[in-house]
Write a structure and sequence with these properties.
Elements lengths: L1 H13 L3 H32 L3 H47 L1 H13 L5 H25 L9 H25 L5 H23 L4 H25 L1
Helix pairs in contact: 2-3, 2-6, 2-7, 2-8, 3-4, 3-5, 3-6, 4-5, 6-7, 7-8
Length: 235
């Protein structure tokens, strides 16, 4: 019996839920957007203050690495907290099942009643589900948690690390590889195209308005470049 339970749990963990996949993608999109804007901010500030290409490159590269690891550590801490919270909720529900099974079953029944199922049918559903896997049923109904599927902080951290690095490479490459006569417009175009892509992806992942997300990202990108350019000019 114990072996069967362990095998079932192992199989559950092998297949990520859609929520887990979307969380990893979300971390990637946010990391990419942050990598683009922070790197271009430093590049514009430094490039507006000096024409030394090596100085500009080192400043941009240093910021890219710092941003990537900062985003990764932030995602790891955030998702770890979420995972701990979910595990604590599961443990609490498991304890309640031992001390007050009837109330737990009543909560499952009420869940279906609230969705338009008759009380008699809801009770039958609740009894059947609780008999098969009481803990899985309760945590799913009450906490909206899929038992055995917790957010993976490492997935989010590596996704953010990779995406932030990749996002920051585009403005860094444009500013340092293009000739002096075209490096500014090339960097601006690279940033605008990049934030347009991240705006599109964030809207699709979040089921939001694509146009609104893209326009918002473009405005933020333009403001970021404008502010940092004049900061560099000032100093």
């Amino acid at each position: 019996m114990v072996a069967n339970q362990e095998l079932r749990t192992k199989k559950q963990k092998q297949h990520q839920t859609m929520e887990e996949k979307l969380n990893t993608l979300r971390a990637g999109v946010l990391g990419s957007n942050d990598g683009i804007l922070t790197v271009v901010g430093v590049l514009f500030s430094v490039a507006a203050a000096t024409t030394n290409e090596f100085t500009i490159f080192i400043a941009g590269l240093s910021d890219l690495l710092a941003c990537a690891f900062s985003m990764a550590s932030g995602e790891y801490a955030s998702v770890s907290t979420q995972k701990d919270t979910e595990k604590a909720a599961v443990a609490q529900e498991a304890a309640l099942l031992k001390t007050n099974f009837a109330d737990q079953q009543a909560a499952v029944q009420q869940f279906y009643v609230d969705r338009g199922v008759t009380a008699e049918t809801s009770l039958a559903i609740a009894k059947d589900l609780m008999a098969k896997d009481a803990l899985k049923t309760v945590v799913n109904v009450k906490e909206d948690i899929e038992l055995g599927h917790y957010m993976n902080p490492w997935d989010a951290a590596f996704s953010s690390l990779f995406a932030a690095s990749l996002g920051g490479i585009f403005p860094l490459a444009a500013m340092t590889l293009f000739p002096a006569a075209t490096q500014w417009p090339a960097t601006i175009v690279a940033v605008l195209l990049s934030v347009t892509l991240t705006g599109f992806l964030s809207a699709k992942l979040g089921h939001g308005l694509v146009k609104t997300a893209i326009v918002r990202n473009l405005i933020v990108g333009i403001i970021t470049m404008f502010i940092h350019y004049y900061v560099g000019q000032f100093f």
